[in-house]
Fold this sequence. Notes:
Elements: H1 2-24, H2 33-46, H3 51-55, H4 58-82, E1 90-92, H5 103-115, E2 123-125, H6 128-175, H7 179-182, H8 185-207, H9 223-238, H10 243-268, H11 274-284
Antiparallel strand pairs: 1-2
InterPro entries: K_chnl_dom (IPR013099)
Keywords: Ion channel, Ion transport, Membrane, Transmembrane, Transmembrane helix, Transport
Domain Potassium channel: 101-152
Amino acid sequence: MKWLVSLCGAGLVLFALRDLFHTLWHPTRHGGLSRLVMSVLWRTARRLRARRRVVGLVGPLAMVSVVSMWAATVVLGWAVIYWPHMPGAFTFARDLPTAREPALLDSVYLSLVTVATLGLGDIAPAAGWLRLASPLEALIGFALLTATVSWVLEIYPALTRRRCLAVRLALLRDTAPTPQQLDNTAGALLLESLASDVVRVRVDFTQFAEAYYFHDGEDRASLAVMVGYADVLARHGQSATRTDVRLAASLLAGALRDLAAVLDQRFLRTGASPPKVFVAYAADHGRSHAHP
């Protein structure tokens, strides 16, 4: 019976590690419980009255909630592993009577101290297998800390790329280039560079799905608002007389279709055409779609 309880604890630890792996390191970033936590927080914030202000906190709050969930699950899992063997398989400091606290509380305390790599030493494993398992928990705690730092450092460059593309589209919309002004080498280079930027954002939504739940602030920095103007530019380019401009416009149109497909499959699930997906994307972020 003791080993069955310990195996249940090991299952909790493996569940947390699997979710962490799929959220941070899997190529497609299909985190299970972490994605559920983020989407629930996003939908809840959208229903609140103070929408713009509250939604702006969803992304950071979701990341903190997910990391806290991983840490709590790991701590609880290792506590369940220790619990059936407490206190017999452990040694206690001289001034710490073994009967003072319940075995479960001692197990949670030991797990929390170990995963935080504090190593206070007032409770130490005595059984051979526990002396190997306890340092393993410390390694998992260290990995969780470094993974969290890496996650934060990875997500903000992705947000910067998205916002830079939005500001660039806002500037182009202010300039309002005509189809004739795009019908030259400069126009071809412009459309091609926009296609590259859209592809980067599309990859970011695949690899950093949590970026979707971050608010972009002002409308000019919001891709949800400005992405529709990229479609306008693509249509202008496709009506050009020069073949290089038409090719670059086709590349931009294809990149936009890809981006719409990723947004729809992973977040919106409308099953609609790309223009309608972009309208739904803007609405999901509490914005209105930009018009030329």
